[in-house]
Amino acid sequence: MKMVNYEVTVFTGSLDHATTYNDVYIKLMGTDGESCRTQLRDYKGSSAFARGAVSSFTVPCPVSIGKLLLIELDKQRFSLFPEEDWFPDKVEIKSPEEVTYTVPIYRWITDSKVHRFREGTALRVFEDNHRLGRYSRDKELKRRKEEYRMIELKLEVLANCKKKWKDMHHLNRAFWHKTHMADYVQEHWKEDVFFGYQYLNGINPMLIRRCTALPSNFPVTDDMVFLHGQSRLEEEMKKGNIFLADYKILDGVKQNVINRKKQYLMAPLVLLHKTPQDQLMPVAIQLKQTPADDNPIFFPTDSEYDWLMAKIFVRSADFNIHELNVHLLRTHLLAEVFTVSLLRNVPMVHPLYKLLIHHTRYTLQINILARLLLISKTGVFTKYAASGGEGMITILRRSMSSMTYSSLCIPDDIAERGLEDVPNFHYRDDGLRLWDIISRFVQGVLGHYYKNDAEVKQDSELQKWISDIFVHGFLSKKSTGIPQSFTSVAELVKFVTMVIFTSSAQHAAVSSGQYDFDGWMPNAPTSLQCPPPTKKGTTNEATMLDTFPDVSTTVHGMAVVWLLSKQSTDFVPLGHYPKNHFTEETPCKLIKEFQERLEEFEANVKARNGSLGVPYTYLIPAEVENSVTL
Ligand code: FE2
Hints:
Bound molecules: fe (ii) ion
Number of domains: 3
CATH topology of the largest domain: Lipoxygenase-1, domain 5
């Protein structure tokens, strides 16, 4: 009988320890039949599957197997030899009909079981018609559901010197890891201009909003803020020049005890004014939500230390809200929900998997570490932040209810907060451009696979993905505006854009600058150990030093933000897919276009930054990681 030959090329990955010396077997399965399980052997012998190796083999078959559907791979050790992990990147198969198929793998094979991998063409569930394909799709998802369990956004889980700082000189000396921006912060932290700047371009650009009417619990009057009658609040509000930062979700939150000392966390209200010089200046600060005689409203015209102390309490409140709501909840935990739902509901062969898998890299791992090292009972946040422990649970629970779909989509969020035309708002400008570039890419890829709304509605795997996110990430609350199902291509494209934006750009914006802005403790105390002044004229430098966190708290805070700001060693920038699961021409072309647009945008940002006193670098594409990894 005449045999037909398949030429099989195996690409082993270039990761450390990707090599295996075990025997590797393959079986090819197609629409018309299958090959025997065949050992892959060539002249290279044992180094055929070494790190980075590309090795070709011949697999004979009695007859053609038709269109390739999937392959089975397994590796077996020789007796007495250890089991060795192996990381194949992909397998290429050239059929006797001269068709080349690519099977993306990009994962570890650690055991001697048989593993199935699908041919690279993306297939949605309703077009995966062959019995074999259907079977392996179901099996893959069943296994993944066992491996990845949904954790409810578990709110219930969710150096030793206890001396105070003697003087600023000591504090200066402890601040030894410098970055250019951290230096700048150390120099300018007391200035009102910089205080205002951070609401737009610091690591928490998410709180400030345009103020059209003063909240009833913030009784600021004209003569308080415009001493010489230059203007009226009412008028300035009408012109859109008044802004508010309201920390009300911190109101009444249980304050931590650190090194046996009670800590203080305020829930301030901050009023800001956009000046004719286009600077955003704080004009009034009330540290507690309920107006009272012992809760004075502070102004820039108060004594140097009264005003500075008010700002320090605001910055400490900002640290706590930023880390828990803006950083942990709205990027890390959300990205985890998107990831787990993807892994449980969407098989490797699905176009959504191929598109999103790169944006989930290391997310589960880093969140496990965060749970262990930051917010566990003995975690650094629990021990050294004013809201650590019970307070954290309250803040996360309240933050959950403010986590709406529109607040996660930057174009909607900026409009909702009335910030469309605030000058020098680089987070907004860069963020909107990135959103746009990501959206065009997502539209291209998903538009290629979904030609009409009916195909979206029909895709049961896609629907399970969003449904799990709605139920587990947003606790089935319709008021969040999160879709419960996808009814159109446009709806799908917007949601997937949000997923990629949140895991990449948004995380970078609220995370990469942590050491820059929070490393210098006075700009972002994790906690404060004296209550704020209850009347004016009682503060001085000594009051400030007494209020600052003690030495051990400061140093732990510094060490953590340093660690959290470092780039991972195998950093992959936005839009780069070294392990591309797409094999078809269109998505590969779209990826290239995506990268070109990002490069073009990067050049624009760099040109803009050249003309800025303080460059805004957190959304430069080369600095933005594809996924939440740190
Ligand atoms: Fe992070």
